[in-house]
Amino acid sequence: MSNNKKTIYADNSATTKVRDEVAEVMLTVLKEDYGNPSSIHQYGRKAKSCLEEARNNISSLLNSDEKQILFTSGGTESNNLVIFGISKMWEEGAFKAKEKHIMTTKTEHPSIKEPLEYLENKGWNITWLNVNNEGFIDLEELKAKISSKTLLVSIIHANNEIGTIQDLKTISKICKENNVFFHTDAVQSFGKLPFDLSTLNIDFMSISGHKIYGPKGTGVLYIKSINNLPPIFIGGGQERNLRSGTENLAGIVGFGTAAKLLNKEIIPNAQKLRKLQIELMEKFSNLNNILITGPGLEKVRQNIPIETFSFRLPGHISICCKGIEGESLVLQLDLNGIAVSSGSACSSNDSSDSKSVIRPSHVLQACDIPKDYIKGSLRITLGKDNSKEEILQIFETTHNIIENIRKKNANSLRHCEETQSADEAISERL
After folding, report:
1. Closest Cα to residue 12, out of 406, 385, 422, 328?
2. Domain-wise residue ranges, the chain
3. CATH, domain range 265-413
4. Where are the alpha helices (DSSP H) in 246-336?
5. Active-site residue (options: 175, 321, 346, 416)
6. pLDDT category of residue 324 using cuts at 50, 70 and 90
7. Residue 346 annotated in active site
8. Which fold has domain 20-262?
């Protein structure tokens, strides 16, 4: 890593740096407010007060009732609670007018995709909605395939890989017209986009603390009506009997603090990130053999000035490079002090597995990204602390790495061709 270059963190869709204010309040809880919220003595009462204050901070950011906020360990648990909770209720006969039919998209996060694949293997009818090349669903396809017999629709709000923002207002309206439960994975959009759940027909929403400068291991499931979900964890009765287990108080308070701090920052942060995003997208769009994935510049520019947010998550840039592996780009950028990520990943997380191969992202496949581009995916996700100087460094470094890789590939190909020609000449003389 070069000593004269500043290190840059640009992988904020993976996780964010915990804010100093959040870390401080968490440390206070760990050292001073360590009581069990279920205890009735003064330590327990203080812990309970901290818990409910955090609940109020998060509900305020959603414009919801604090009783609709259920604390979990993160987005994955929240998503699983909805899918397996609703399926459990159907199995127990709670929805006599419904069928084993759930609708989702082909571009969901694995914590939705894999549970639904599990149910599909158990005989459930799962409709996988198509997306266009920018990742948007076809609302007419949703209307055509949904019915009053459908049990649940689960559609991600902002895609983690390509930044596409789905139209929650229209989707929720379609679900309401058909009397179908609607769930959205809003892990990427919460704290980055303004929400008003009082105006949306959303039954369940999953969010997470570590995407908004809070701690890992904390999440929330918003539940419109407490009667619409059974408990998965049983024994203790915490979180209104829906999620038993002693609460992670320090993490929850940290999550609530992060949400409170963001309450007045969402619009300014998004405006700043939109400008940086457009500048970086413009630079990449001028390069040969580079494809911007997700919503393009034309749609992103339509969202200025920002009052409401649509099309693409602010600060999210994703590209595909022809003939280059994305993980190679990530590693070389890391050597240059820049942290980003790739949509294509090894099929095994075990580094000792010699058979691990690079597999393209299911999201990019659903968007019909060309085969010679799809494995070269790169995701750059900016946060509130990134600067214009940093995005210029990101672009210049990425551009140089891409050019160097292509030169090496060209030289290697030329060497192979020269070797083959020499071998053929020797064979002819023999």
Report:
1. 385
2. 20-262, 265-413
3. 3.90.1150.10
4. 249-262, 266-285, 297-301, 326-335
5. 346
6. very high
7. yes
8. Aspartate Aminotransferase; domain 2 (3.40.640)
